[in-house]
Amino acid sequence: MAQLLKAANTEGNKESLSDYSPVPSNTYKCQVIKSEWKKTKKKDGHYLQFTFKILEGEYAGKVLFARLNLDNPNPVTVEIANKELNSICQACNKVGVQDSELLHGIPIELRVIKTEATKTQPEGNDIKGYAPISAATTGLIVENLTDLPPVVDDRTGTALESTIPAPVGSEPVLQTVPQTVPQTVPQTVPEPTQTAKPKLPWE
Predict the structure, then answer these.
(1) How far apart are CA 141 and CA 173, in angstroms?
(2) Which helix (H) or strand (E) holds 83?
(3) What secondary structure letter does DSSP report for 93?
(4) Sheet holding 26-39, edge to edge
(5) Which end of the chain is flanked by fewer CB atoms within 10 Å, N or C?
(6) Which residues contact 169 (CB under 8 A, 6 or more apart)?
(7) Cα 58 to the center of its chain, rounded Å
(8) Which is nearest to 137 in space by CA: 167, 107, 115, 157?
(9) How confident is the model over 121-173, as pLDDT tens digits?
C-alpha cells in the first residue's frame, strides 16, 4: 500500500492526460488556447509555440501545435516563421500584433496533414495553412434574400422591385440593397492606444 501525497480525482484535481495522437488530414475549426516562448534544443535561439484546440466535430477537444522559430541563427528559418505568424494574424484579423495573447480565443480554420512515422519521429500532424472562418459560418452573409425588407420609394410610398440576383450555385451571395440613408454628422474616432511591447524572456 502507498499513501498518496494528496487525494486523486477530487473536485480540485480532475485534470487527466491529454490525447496527443494525430488527427486525419483535414481542415479544422480551431482557436489558440496557449502561446509561449521556448528555448530551442541547441540553446541557440527561441521559438514561439502556439497550442490550438479543435472546436467541433469528431476530434473536438484535441490539440495541435505550431512552433515558430522567430529567434534563430538561420535567417531563412526566421523568415519562414515570420510568414507563418503573419498568416495566423491575418486569419485572426489582427494587425500590428505585439503580444501573442491577442490571438487567443479567435476561431480560425487550420489546414492540417497527418505525417507518417519515421525512424526518428513518430507519426504526427503538420499545420499547412491558416484561414479566417468563412462568412457563411459566422453568419455575415445573407443566405435567404427573400427575408430582406422591401425598398420603398420615398416619393410615391410604393415598394420597389428588388434587383438582387439569385445566389450562384450553392454559395450565398451578399448584395447591397439601395436604401435612403440619413446624413449623420461625422464624429471623430479616437485612435486606439498602443501598448508597449513586452520584453522577451531572453532580453
Answers:
(1) 7
(2) helix 75-91
(3) T
(4) 63-71, 46-54, 26-39, 108-115, 124-132
(5) N
(6) none
(7) 19
(8) 107
(9) 999 999 999 999 974 454 433 333 334 444 445 555 555 444 333 444 444 44
